[in-house]
Amino acid sequence: MEKILQSIGITFGVIGLLLCVVGMGVRLFKIKQQGLKRSEILICLAVGAMGWHVFIYLLIYTGLIRELPNLYNKGIPFYYLIGPSMYFATLFALFPQQNTPKFWWVHLLPFILGLIDIFPYALASSVEKKNLLEQIVQDIKLGVTHHYGFIDQKWHYIIRFFLAFVYLMAQWRLLYIYDERFSSIRGGGRAYMLLFSTLYSLYLLMQSGMVLSLLFNQTQSSFIMRDVGQLIWISLFYFIFSLWMFISAIYQPASHLVFKKVEI
Is 195 contained in some domain? Predict the structure, then answer.
């Protein structure tokens, strides 16, 4: 029974990845309006980073990461971009005439931190990489406690999820202050981004719950990361989010929210 449930969870994750890839391709193909182009690119960036995280987790869970050691930890800098990309995608979708902030590069500082921290593992020998990954597959908590980095790996999780929730609160604030009467896009824009933000929030809450358990319950961390129930729930929420990514890309990407006249 457990193997069947594992297969279901992995299937949800794989189908979700495929839906996201197709959704990103369709969105980028359909980009037409310059004002809303930014939101589509940022959505694709955020969803791509989320997809890579799911992909690496599935490789570790199934043990296939041992065959692809050079892929491990390469997503660390990009995971830091999910929060700001989600926020600015919402900003530019609801307020397409908003200028890019002057100090936008400040949001890239955590990305640079993550980029620097992947070098110790990248420069390790192939034997060291394979030995580490063999241990991680057997005891998955080592993905948080290994020392192939300039900072303790658990701090990446803590900082990333803290920043993600800060950006998420700012993202919901945009939805709160948005007023359709004074908007330059047609009706439906708020509902579109509301569903997007809700699905992302649920997925983030599910994932953060598992990460917090992993960080503060070291004695059972390996069990937590391999728990079939955790795998199915997170894969299911990712699958639902991927469905939105796919369906909305085909029927109503943000770039199709046409402009309207604003009466003052």
Answer: yes
Return phi, psi of residue 8, to 5°: -65, -45
Domain that holds residue 216: 2-256
Q: Is residue 263 part of a domain?
A: no
Number of domains present in the structure of the chain: 1
Instruction: Residue 193: give its domain's CATH number.
Output: 1.20.1070
Q: pLDDT tens per residue, the chain (264 residues)?
A: 667 877 888 888 899 999 999 999 888 887 765 445 788 889 999 999 999 998 998 898 888 999 999 999 899 999 999 999 999 999 988 888 888 888 889 999 999 999 999 998 888 888 999 998 998 888 777 777 777 888 878 888 888 889 999 999 999 999 888 877 666 666 567 788 888 899 899 888 877 766 776 666 655 555 556 666 677 777 888 898 899 889 888 876 555 554 454 444
Torsion of CA 43, 234, 117, 162, to 10 degrees: 80
Contact (CB, 8 A) for 211 and 161: yes
CB atoms < 10 A from the CB of 80, how many? Answer: 25
**Does residue 44 lie within any of the structural domains?**
yes
Model's pTM, two decimal places? 0.86
